[in-house]
Amino acid sequence: AATMAPRDKKQKNAEAKDAEMKDAKVVAEPIQELETDAVPVKGSVKNTDTVAFLTADTTLNTLTSANGILMSLNEGAMQHFMAGARANVGISKGRYLFEVKIIEHVSTPDTPGAVKSKLALKVGFSTAGSSLILGSADSFCFDADGFALHNTKRTPTGGRITRDSVVGLLLNLDKDSPNFNTMSLFKDGQRATQPLPLPEELQGKMLFPHVCFKGMSLFTNFGPTPTAPLPFKCNMIQ
To answer: Quick one: pLDDT at residue 44?
Structure first.
């Protein structure tokens, strides 16, 4: 079998590092904000249903509360499983925002010698009836490591999610907007990623707010008032 010479290995590593630097430069480019102030939603267009995570749309290890707190079961090795929850109100047109905040990292005593569970968070949108674990062809999301995820493919965005930061997920389905059919991530009210085009499989479909997490507790806010206002006025889902 052929083996790579040490010099070839160094050259390959250098090329890979150069490619990573180029990706980082692309992410770091200034973002021109094309979003504008929204007109308040009124009348029959305004959502009157309470936005919530219903038991039927959550994994068995997810614990919900009336004040927007999400937690997961962590006993009996359950800390190794992702918890998932999809909201009951979807979006088919217009531009709407919801927020997520990591309020607690949960540590559980592990069995000596056992593999320690890694913290994880994914926030995005999915179709009705999709897998409750984000990342399939029926969903589009951002993860805490700074990647966008769809159909198991990860794309670097630079928008990392950390504890105590308020993360805003903006879905733009306004056909008159230059950012039509895109999803954006905001962090503490400031844009963290470029508007990312929705995958073709999701365009034209009703999309629901969706979160997946492990090793943490979350606060979710559907409105009507954002915890971290954006540079422009935006309607929330509630």
So the answer is: 53
pLDDT at 16 over 60: no
- What's the gap between Cα 188 and its chain centre? 14
pLDDT digits (tens, 9 = 90+) for 73-124: 988 788 889 999 999 999 999 999 999 999 999 876 655 555 566 889 999 9
At 89, which amino acid appears?
V
Dihedral over Cα of 52, 59, 134, 67: its sign = positive
In whole angstroms, give the CA distance from residue 144 to residue 167. 10
| Residue type at 19 in one-letter notation | A
Helix (H, G, I), strand (E, B), or coil: what is residue 127? coil
Q: Is the pLDDT of residue 188 over 50?
A: yes
Q: Please say whether the dihedral angle defined by the alpha carbons of residues 208, 193, 136 and 78, taken in this order, is positive or negative.
A: negative
Q: What is the pTM of this model?
A: 0.82
The answer to whether the CB of 222 falls within 8 A of the CB of 238 is yes
pLDDT of residue 109: 61
Distance CA 100, CA 83 (A): 15
Question: What amino acid is encoded at 174 in this protein?
Answer: D
**What is the CB-side half-sphere exposure of residue 197 using CA atoms within 13 A?**
3
Residue 90 φ/ψ, nearest 5 degrees: -105, 170
Note the maximum CA span of the chain: 71
Round to whole Å and give the CA distance between 133 and 145. Answer: 17
